[in-house]
């Protein structure tokens, strides 16, 4: 229990304590904070309280406009900070609770805060790690007999995305224009995408990273995974169809990728760990991992369009459906000696489950536009319309005897606007 009031339905109990970058109208300086209940604890105000062995000489990491320097400190420092914060915010601890002057400076209402991108993202890699999603897309474009490409079950397939267009939740996304080929027997035309889609994803931030030429082994990968965010990797399917052969997505993905402002640390998620999926064939030795690193995180996607009073859920999925784990993704990414750096972002790829209601993209939910998605009251979608708002939530719930331990994400909301 925290001395800060936390409603039982709050997204931010003391078991969560996600990290975010915020500012206020009164103080436009961007600073680091932790969400608790309806409040944000400003770590720049209380940085002098971090006197443990790893933070006593690194208190300045909490006086930065991003989390990159904190991420770079590594797993032991992250653990020290989280344990100290849980103690500091607990009911019995007087250090902050009984210091009225410091408390008034250190806490900011979330309703008065402006949330920002939590890191300076140097590189962004998007994987393709949901077997159900890859199978569905393969069936659509290649048929059941060739649904998965020969390499898919042997390695985490991925591609390098565009880091500059990763934006924080709430940033409007404009419908992209590009080359599309509506008729296969006609030349391409240039116009606004008509098949604008969402991709339900999660992503993780890299911590210390590695030096060029030194891969991160699978048994060390966890020490380099700082925490997770929700992600919507917007996709223009008609642009993608024309451009992706032979090198994959380019303009169809580079116009915008949205992440939630709060990073949930991995330690908050460990109570929700599940056994890893059975991988057949068994991966090569460098990808084999005996420790569980799959997580039970319920995911929901809803849409609210013009003329709709509230958002309507179109997908209920779960992060546990991923075939390749985050540790396998990171290890595979660096096995060549590629160096990753603090603040780099690695995404899951679209998260789809085994049944139609758990498909994580409108491409699958509408099956290439052949099955309209019913939003009620006469509203339907096959792909996104101008003015639509997409809301993504993630919730981890663990039932322990007579109580429920829950970790929530703040929703990720983004809208599609007319092309100017």
Automatic annotation (TrEMBL):
Organism whose genome encodes this protein: Pelobates cultripes (Western spadefoot toad)
Signal sequence residues: none
EC category name: hydrolase
Family annotation (InterPro entries): Fumarylacetoacetase (IPR005959), Fumarylacetoacetase-like_C (IPR011234), Fumarylacetoacetase_C_sf (IPR036663), Fumarylacetoacetase_N (IPR015377), Fumarylacetoacetase_N_sf (IPR036462)
E.C. no: 3.7.1.2
Protein name: Fumarylacetoacetase
Known cofactor(s): Mg(2+); Ca(2+)
Occurrences of domain Fumarylacetoacetase N-terminal (ranges): 15-118
Residues of the Fumarylacetoacetase-like C-terminal domain: 125-395
Binding locations of Ca(2+): 126, 199, 201
Pathway, per record: Amino-acid degradation; L-phenylalanine degradation; acetoacetate and fumarate from L-phenylalanine: step 6/6
Molecular function terms from GO: fumarylacetoacetase activity; metal ion binding
Keyword Methyltransferase: no
Family assignment from sequence similarity: Belongs to the FAH family.
Domain of life: Eukaryota
Binding site for substrate: 128, 142, 240, 244, 350
Keyword terms, alphabetized: Calcium, Hydrolase, Magnesium, Metal-binding, Phenylalanine catabolism, Tyrosine catabolism
Binding site for Mg(2+): 233, 253, 257
Residues forming the catalytic site: 133 (proton acceptor)
Example GO biological process: homogentisate catabolic process
Catalytic reaction list: 4-fumarylacetoacetate + H2O = acetoacetate + fumarate + H(+)
Gene3D superfamilies: Fumarylacetoacetase, N-terminal domain (2.30.30.230), Fumarylacetoacetase-like, C-terminal domain (3.90.850.10)
Presence of keyword tRNA-binding: no
């Amino acid at each position: 229990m925290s001395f800060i009031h936390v409603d039982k339905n709050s997204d931010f109990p003391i078991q969560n304590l996600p990290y975010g970058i915020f500012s206020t109208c009164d103080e436009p300086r961007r600073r680091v904070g932790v969400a608790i209940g309806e409040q944000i604890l400003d770590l720049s105000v209380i940085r002098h309280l971090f006197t443990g062995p790893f933070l006593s000489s690194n208190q300045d990491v909490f006086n930065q406009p991003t989390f990159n320097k904190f991420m770079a400190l590594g797993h032991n420092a992250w653990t020290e900070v989280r344990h100290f914060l849980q103690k500091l915010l607990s009911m019995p601890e007087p250090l902050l609770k009984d210091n009225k002057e410091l408390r008034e400076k250190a806490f900011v209402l979330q309703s008065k805060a402006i949330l920002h991108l939590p890191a300076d993202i140097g590189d962004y890699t998007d994987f393709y790690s949901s077997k159900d999603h890859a199978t569905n897309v393969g069936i659509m474009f290649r048929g059941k007999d060739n649904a998965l490409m020969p390499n898919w079950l042997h390695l985490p397939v991925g591609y390098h995305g565009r880091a500059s267009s990763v934006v924080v939740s709430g940033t409007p996304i404009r419908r992209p224009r590009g080359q599309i080929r509506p008729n296969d027997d006609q030349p391409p035309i240039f116009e606004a995408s008509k098949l604008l889609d969402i991709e339900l994803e999660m992503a993780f931030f890299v911590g210390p990273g590695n030096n060029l030429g030194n891969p991160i082994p699978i048994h060390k990968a966890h020490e380099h995974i700082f925490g997770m965010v929700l992600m919507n990797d917007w996709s223009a399917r008609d642009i993608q169809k024309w451009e992706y052969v032979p090198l994959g997505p380019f303009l169809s993905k580079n116009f915008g990728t949205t992440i939630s402002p709060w990073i949930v640390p991995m330690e908050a998620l460990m109570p929700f760990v599940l056994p890893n999926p059975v991988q057949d064939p068994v991966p090569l030795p460098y990808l084999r991992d005996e420790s569980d690193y799959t997580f039970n995180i319920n995911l929901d996607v809803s849409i609210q369009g013009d003329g709709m009073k509230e958002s309507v859920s179109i997908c209920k999925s779960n992060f546990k459906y991923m075939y390749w784990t985050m540790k396998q993704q990171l290890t595979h990414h660096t096995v060549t000696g590629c160096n990753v750096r603090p603040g780099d972002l690695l995404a899951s790829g679209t998260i789809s489950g085994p049944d139609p209601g758990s498909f994580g993209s409108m491409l699958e939910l509408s099956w290439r536009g052949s099955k309209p998605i019913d939003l009620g009251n006469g509203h339907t979608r096959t792909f996104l319309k101008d003015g639509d708002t997409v809301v993504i939530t993630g919730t981890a719930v663990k039932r322990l005897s007579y109580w429920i331990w829950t970790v929530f994400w703040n929703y990720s909301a983004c809208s599609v606007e007319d092309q100017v």
